[in-house]
Amino acid sequence: MGGSGAAQGFFRQTSEGESVADPLAVKVDENLERAIKALKKKMDKEGIFKELRRRRSYEKPSVRRRAKRARAIRAQRRNAVARTT
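Structure (tokenized):
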């Protein structure tokens, strides 16, 4: 499972070279909803959800470049407004 930069922290390589997920410690008396919330928080922190959304459908390189350019322009405008106020 190499190559994906966002999901690198969630998986680790075994000595045999296969990818396995890092375990999430859950106490026996811990609430199930709390354990699910901890898992979602860990996955969000490591970018798993963002990676899943990105891979859901194919995006042409030209569309990817256009979106990247639009994000840069928005960030530039946002930074310009922050500097003036």
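Strands lie at 11-13, 19-21. The CA atoms of residues 30 and 36 lie 11 Å apart.
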